[in-house]
Amino acid sequence: MNLLIVSGSQRKESQSAKVAKYLTNTATLFNEVTHIELCKYNLPFWDGEQASKSAIGSEWPMLNKKIQKADAMVLITPEWGGMATPILKNFLLMCDAQDTAHKPVLLTSVVSGISGAYPIAELKMNALKNNKLVATPEHLIIRHVEEVLNNKQLENLTQRDTNLRDRINYSMHMLHQYSQALVQIRIKHKERPFPKQQEYLYGM
Fold first, then answer.
1. What is the mean pLDDT of residues 185-190?
2. For residue 97, which of 93, 101, 105, 173 is within the disulfide window of CB 3.0 to 4.6 Å?
């Protein structure tokens, strides 16, 4: 099983990237883990046309190969004004269902304060419709992110940090189980397609 972790902050050296690196180190059940930090890549603003993805200088074709290879994904976004970041939403608009459909995704929100629920609600409501990614029942909200997932000395962790790490371990464990299960769905989807399947490329 291959895991793709996408951190959607528009700032380099972000807390989202820090969380992504922590998740990468804990995803030991997966055979291969790849981290994409979106702000480090040149992605065009998608205009609804396929040609925009391969515009001059676009790095989308390379990123799309990583998406195709993945069996599961983690999407990480900071909370910006109660929303997921534009760069992450643009990334999701560019994802094609033939590469992402029926793959599990763990949604993760990063916030410096005590909120963080709004980006999760937004992504569940309208970011997975046409790419047909499957959000797992679990999601993560990393509150007061500057204060957690920093210390490598486990004996010096606060109780809140310890509880968060336990929740992360559980969520990654469940993501791995969903990735194994949904492989079978994708295989059957190809071997025994629904009649007129191509008429239902987009979610309702």
1. 90
2. 101
